[in-house]
Amino acid sequence: MAEETLFSKIVKKEIPSDMLYQDDLVTAFRDISPALPTHILIVPNKIIPTADDVEADDEPALGRMITVAKKLAREAGIANDGYRLIINCKEHGRQEVPHIHMHLLGGADVGPMLNRKKTS
Fold first, then answer.
1. CB 3.0-4.6 Å disulfide test: which of 24, 65, 81, 100 passes with 48?
2. How far apart (Å, rounded) are the C-alpha atoms in residues 36 and 46?
3. Do the beta carbons of residue 10 and residue 17 sit within 8 Å?
4. What is the mean pLDDT of residues 21-46?
5. Could you tell me the CATH number of the domain that includes residue 72?
6. Distance between CA atoms of 49 and 52, rounded to whole angstroms?
7. How much is the pLDDT for 119?
8. Is 107:78 a contact under the CB 8 Å cutoff?
9. What is the pLDDT at residue 114?
10. Is the pTM of this model over 0.90?
């Protein structure tokens, strides 16, 4: 079994959060340091350390993460203008918590995908 994480403790309600959604597969809560007006984290209830650790039997939870993101984006009133979904993976992907999670970001222009470096 994977080691407990900050997010798994939030899922089990051992750590308080501004929880917006929870079912048997996923949990969603507001980020404590929001980057935009709407910044919600959606996590599988099962600890999956990174996107690189996903197995075929994790597909229902990962699909649910996206349908929950859609639901929460609509509830937050950001669906019409658009939003961004991000999953970071490992060190170079800037993943900070070893429990796969999706960021739902919106409520303002999210900016470019990447800062492009000039190559010459």
1. 100
2. 27
3. yes
4. 97
5. 3.30.428.10
6. 8
7. 63
8. yes
9. 78
10. yes
**Residues designated catalytic:** 101
Domain assignment present for 110 = no
| pLDDT value for 86 | 97
- The domain in which residue 35 lies consists of 6-81+88-93
Query: Taking Cα atoms as reference points, which of 3, 103, 99 lies closest to residue 53?
Result: 99
HSE-CB of 40 using CA atoms within 13 angstroms: 29
Whether residue 75 contacts residue 33, with contact meaning beta carbons closer than 8 Å, is answered with no
Using pLDDT thresholds of 50, 70 and 90, give the confidence band for residue 113: confident
Domain-embedded: residue 109: no
Reported as a single tens digit per residue, the pLDDT across 74-92 is 999 999 999 999 999 999 9
When divided into structural domains, the chain yields a total of: 1
pLDDT value at residue 15: 96
What order do you get walking across the sheet with 19-22 strand by strand? 19-22, 26-30, 38-44, 102-106, 83-86
DSSP alpha helices (H): ranges in the chain?
A: 6-11, 59-76
